[in-house]
Amino acid sequence: MIGVSIGKGDRAPDFDLPDQDGTPLRLSELLREGPVVLFFYPAALSTGCTAEACNFRDLAAEFRAAGVQRVGISKDPVAKQKQFADKHGFDYPLLSDPGQTTIEAYGVKRKIALGPLSTKRLTFVIGTDQRILEVIHSELDMNQHAGRALEVASGA
User: Fold this and answer.
1) Which of 43, 49, 153, 156 is catalytic?
2) What is the mean pLDDT of residues 27-31?
3) Cα 78 from Cα 19, distance rounded (Å)
4) Rounded to two decimals, what is the model's pTM?
5) pLDDT of residue 145
6) Active site residue 54
7) What does the alpha-carbon distance between residue 18 and residue 94 come to, in Å, rounded to a whole number?
8) DSSP of the chain, one letter per residue?
9) Tens digit of pLDDT for each residue in 40-78?
10) How confident is the model at residue 1, as a pLDDT?
């Protein structure tokens, strides 16, 4: 599956990462509140990642109505995540993984970085049992991620 080490039906690796405010978040704790859509993006404030993250923001009401949480992860430091979130008014956490531990655990680290883009653009829909319901991969269609994730998670 597109070089991803984990896939549909697998248990999602837990993590403990700081959000844009420096508050640590754990996947296992987030899942107590409902399914999680976890999207990995290459670089905060880049054109493609901004389009993708804004699409997740723009579907906020639909995700809330479905009881689904959105969480973004990149290797950017907390300060850059904060700048990204504040600039675009994101109402969901952006997690910082500069050591790329979680990025590697999910199999989204590129073997060969494309310039500064060392993370693949993948989205994982995770059920409350911590099982992966779907993996969405599209490097070029940034709007595919949020729409497809919402469709899958709404049926979770």
Assistant:
1) 49
2) 97
3) 7
4) 0.89
5) 66
6) no
7) 8
8) -TT-SS-TTSBPPP-EEE-TTS-EEEHHHHGGGS-EEEEE-S-TTSHHHHHHHHHHHHTHHHHHHHT-EEEEEESS-HHHHHHHHHHHT--S-EEE-TT-HHHHHTT-EEEEEETTEEE--EEEEE-TTSBEEEEEE-SS-HHHHHHHHHHHHHT-
9) 988 888 877 888 899 999 999 999 999 999 999 999 999
10) 36
Amino acid sitting at position 76: D
Confidence of residue 116 (pLDDT cuts 50, 70, 90): low
Q: What pLDDT does residue 48 have? A: 73
Which two tokens mark 41? 């993006």
Burial class (CB in 10 A: 0-12, 13-18, 19+), 127: middle
Q: What is the mean pLDDT of the chain?
A: 87
CA atoms of 31 and 122, how far apart (whole Å): 19
Burial class, 149, CB count within 10 angstroms (exposed 0-12 / middle 13-18 / buried 19+): buried
Structure tokens at 130: 């911590």
26 and 33 Cβ atoms separated by less than 8 Å: no
CA distances from 45 to 7, 9, 56 (A): 28, 32, 15
